Amino acid sequence: MDCNRCDQDAVMHAAYSGSHLCADHFRESVAKRVRRRIRRDDLVPQDATPENPQTWVIGLSGGKDSVVLTQLLHDTFDDDPRIELVGLTIHEGIEGYRDKSVDACVELSDDLGIHHELVSYAEEFGVRMDDVVEDDPENMAACAYCGVFRRDLLSTYADELEADLLLTGHNLDDEAQTALMNFLEGDVEQIAKHFDASLGPLSKREDQSEFVPRAKPLRDVPEKEVALYAHLEDLPAHITECPHASEAYRGEIQQLLYELEENHPGTRHSIISGYEEVAEIAADEFSGDDGADLQECVECGSTTTREVCRKCSLLEALV
Ligand code: SF4
Ligand SMILES: [Zn+2]
Ligand SMILES: [Zn+2]
């Protein structure tokens, strides 16, 4: 089959749009979607200048999503002195998993000439995820601990690096899963928070000055296309699953979405576009409710709704 835009062989077919694209036109189409998302979400503020550049910290895990995001942001902003990119990699202490993906992060950052920071649970908190899973003092899934520690480090280092924006490589499948999970759990407040934390255009989000805003510029690109992009660009992405991965409910939703998308191409896109509209309405409705009971953790000083933050109480339970 030929590409729709030239006479090269097509390397992909997108059932949701009906398009067949060759490697060059496919790469161009991915880059275009990411740049359009950056514009629509107002990620580059008017007052960014070469003298007053914005620092964008990318959560760089070494998996295909964050590697593709980093490459595309580099291609987009390499000649733009208003944006400085920093890659931030978190080592959770998971034997045989993270070491290789850290290598991929170092290699990519070197290739692109961007600043790279590597931080670990071991150095920051004195724990490794492999040991946390063994101890399991709270009788929880591994990801429940890991998520608390990761969020803490991302926000601590976003502050330390004076980040204006924290960017992650969530793709269309990830976002459609989260949207559907929030719907099915019936948690409208969570949907409102999602809008203000990472989903809405920056200009429409409620001001949350105590947190660095987040953004997901890859969220219009399906997972398969991110993987194909990484492959065609020969990017040093590391693809193995974490041995502690345990989000069983997300797995069910993922399976459901695969089937729906197969039978009704375009389902992921329509879930997300409806969800974004509903999330904006919910965010308006809950506006002003947030932040009223925020305080500083008495142990570490981070912003929390409790006296001792979740990270500090987990660490206490682990020793
Ligand atoms: S799958 Fe779970 S335990 Fe593994 S790195 Fe991700 S959040 Fe951590
Ligand atoms: Zn073509
Ligand atoms: Zn704390």
Describe this structure in words.
It is a single chain. The protein has 319 residues and is of the alpha/beta class. 50% of the residues lie in helices and 11% in strands. It contains twelve helices and nine strands. The protein has helices at residues 23-40, 64-77, 98-112, 121-125, 129-135, 142-160, 172-185, 188-199, 223-232, 248-263, 267-286, 310-318; strands at residues 12-14, 19-21, 54-59, 83-91, 115-120, 165-167, 214-215, 295-296, 303-304. It has a five-stranded parallel β-sheet with strand order 5-4-3-6-7, with helices on both faces. It has a two-stranded antiparallel sheet with strand order 1-2. Helix 7 crosses helix 11. It is globular, with a radius of gyration of 20 Å. 35% of the residues are buried. The model has no long low-confidence stretch (mean pLDDT 93). Bound molecules: iron/sulfur cluster and zinc ion (2 copies). The site of one zinc ion (ZN) has 8 residues, from helix 1.
Task: Offer a few descriptive terms.
single chain; 319 residues; Rossmann fold; two-stranded antiparallel ribbon; 12 helices; 50% helix; globular; binds zinc ion
Summary, kept brief:
With 319 residues, this protein is α/β, with parallel strands linked by helices. The chain has helices spanning 23-40, 64-77, 98-112, 121-125, 129-135, 142-160, 172-185, 188-199, 223-232, 248-263, 267-286, 310-318; strands at residues 12-14, 19-21, 54-59, 83-91, 115-120, 165-167, 214-215, 295-296, 303-304.
